[in-house]
Amino acid sequence: MQSPSDHSFAPDTPQAVLSQVFGYSAFRGPQAEIVEQLAAGGDALVLMPTGGGKSLCYQVPAILRHRRGQGVAVVVSPLIALMHDQVGALEEAGVHAAFLNSSLTGEEASRIERELMSGRLTLLYAAPERITTPRFLAQLGSLHERGLLSMFAIDEAHCVSQWGHDFRAEYLQLSLLHERFPDVPRIALTATADELTRRDIIERLQLQDARVFISSFDRPNIRYLIVEKNGSPREQLLRFIQDDHEGEAGVVYCQSRKKVEETAEFLQAQGINALPYHAGLDAELRRRHQDRFLREDGLVMVATIAFGMGIDKPDVRFVAHLDLPKNIEAYYQETGRAGRDGAPAEAWMTYGLADVVNQRRMIDESPADEVFKQGQRGKLDALLALAEATDCRRVRLLGYFGEDITARPAAGPSQGGASPLGGTERSDVWAYRCWNCDNCLNPPQTWDGTEAARKLLSCIYRFHQRGERFGAGHLIDVLRGKATDKTRQYGHDSLSTWGCGAELSEQQWRAVLRQLVALGHVAAEGEFNTLALQDSARAVLKGEVELRLREAEEKKPRGKASRTGARPKADPALVLDAEAQQRFEALKAWRSEVAREHGLPAYVIFQNTTLAEMSRVVPGDLAELGEISGVGAKKLEAYGREILRVLGRD
Ligand code: ADP
Ligand code: ZN
Asked: Does the global pTM surpass 0.85?
C-alpha cells in the first residue's frame, strides 16, 4: 500500500526520508545541511544541545546511503542501556537496525553479526570497546571491501576528551576507524559545548577536515528558577511539584545517597510517585527503577548524579536540585534532561548557605593538587554568581559557554508567555530579558548591602581579636542582639557589634552571610563550620567595595503566591479541551498496551505531542492521520486502523 505521506517526494531525498520514515515535515536548524554533508560523503562534527535533534543527523543519511546500496552505518555509543530502545524506535519506524554489546548472549550476537555481514542492516549500534577488537575490525574490513560500510557515527563524542566529564579510554581508539577506512564518511556528535573539548574531539578523532556545525546551546523551552532555601527545602520541593508538576515526570537531584532515600520516601508519603536511584542500590533494582522511569508516565526519580547519562526520555517536565551541583557544566547538563521534546519544562534549584559551605569544603578537602583545586574553585564561583545573579539567568548561563544571546532581537514578554512586569524598568541591568527565567519574569529586589556586610565582617573580626571562632547561628544572634546562654557565657553582649544589626531579620542576615561566603570574603572552617575572615574581606571592611545584594525572600505562605510568573503550558495535553483530553487519555492507554507488548518505552511508539495532535485534529481517515507530525509510513501501516478505532473513526 502506498502510504499517504510519501507520494509527493522522490524516495531518495533527505526530505522524503524525514517525512516518510519519521513523519516530520521539516528539518530543524542545521539538520538539513548536516544530512547533505554526510549523504554526499563528507565528515561532520555536530555540537547541538540536548533535545536539539542529533539522532536524525546520522539516521537520515544512514537511511539514504543504505537505500543507495552503500550498506550499513556503524553508530558508536557508550550508552549500552539505551541501545535496545534506540534500535526499537528505529524498527518501529521501519528501519532495520540492531545493536552489539555485552548484554547479548553469544547466540544473539552471532545472529546479528550474520545480519551485519549480509549488508541488510541499515544501522548497527555498538559499544566503543567492541568496535576496536580485531574481530570486529576484520568484519568491517570485509564489509568495506564489498562497498557495504556506509558511514560511522560517533555519538557522545566528548567521551574522547579528558577535559570532559565522561572520559572513556576506549574512545581514544576510535581514530583507528579513520586510519583503516579513510574514505568512509564520519559524523561525531556531542552536547558538550566548550572550546577545549571541541578541540580535543577534532584532534583525537582526526576530524580536521570535518565541517563543524555549532548550534545555539540555548534551551528556550526550559525555564530556569533558583530559589533560596527557606525553612524546609523538602517542603519547597513538594510545593513546587504539587503546584506546577502534579503527575508529571521529573528528576530530583540530591548529593548523597542518604538524602536520595529520605527525599524519595518523603515524596512517596505525600502521594507523589517517586523512586530512588543511586550507586549504592543493587544493580538490578537500579535498572528496574530506570526502566520504570523511562516506561511509565509521570514518575519522579530522586537521584544522585549517578543517574542521567543518556536518559533520553523526551517528556521530563522538570529537573530539581536540592543540592548545588559541582559547577555550571554539571548544572547545564543535568537541567538539560528536561524538555527534550521542546515543550515547556522547568529547571528548579533551591540553595542556601550550607550548599556554599559544603561545596567549598569538598574542594578544599579533596586530595587533588592545588592547581586543580584552584580551577575547581573558579568554576564553583561562576556557579555561585549564577545563583546570586539578579539579572537574566539564561544570559549568564550561555555567556559562560561563550555564547552571547544579548545580541539577538529583543525578546518580548509574549515570547515567554508570561505576564509583563510591574514596577520600574532598570535599563542598566535589564539590557536583555529572555522572559523565561525567574529573574526576567519577576526581577528580584536588590539593596545596598555594603553597610550590613561591614557589620557582619567586623563582628567576626571582634571574635578573631578575642581568639574565638563561631558559626553562623551565634554570629547572627550577636548581630541581632539576641541574648542566649552562649552570648552570656562569652560576654558577647558587651561587644561593640552587639545588636548593631537588629534591623535585619535572621533570614536576611543568612542571605548576607551566604553572599559573603559565595564571594569568598568569609570561609566556613572545621567540623563546626566556624567562620573566618579571608584576605579579601579587608577591602570590604574599609568600605572600598560596594556590595549590591539580592533581597532575601522572607518565608512565604504555602501556595502559588510565591511562584514566579505564569506557569508555562507544560504538557501538550493541557491545551486540549475536555473531549480531546478524553481521546488523549484513550490513546495513551492504547499506547501503553502496545509499548508493553513490544517491550519498549511508550514514547518510542508515539510521543505525547503526536498523540495530543491526534486528539485535537481527530483525523477522519488514514491519509489525514498520516499528515500528523510523528506519524511515518510504517507506523501508519502498523497502527493507523487501531488509532482511528480508538478515536471512534472506524
Ligand atoms: P538529542 O539527541 O540532540 O538530544 P534527539 O535526537 O533525541 O535529540 O531529538 C529530540 C527530539 O526532537 C526527539 O523527540 C525527536 O523526535 C525530535 N525531533 C528531532 N528532529 C526533529 C524534526 N526535524 N522535526 C520534529 N521533531 C524532531
Ligand atoms: Zn532570563
From this structure: no
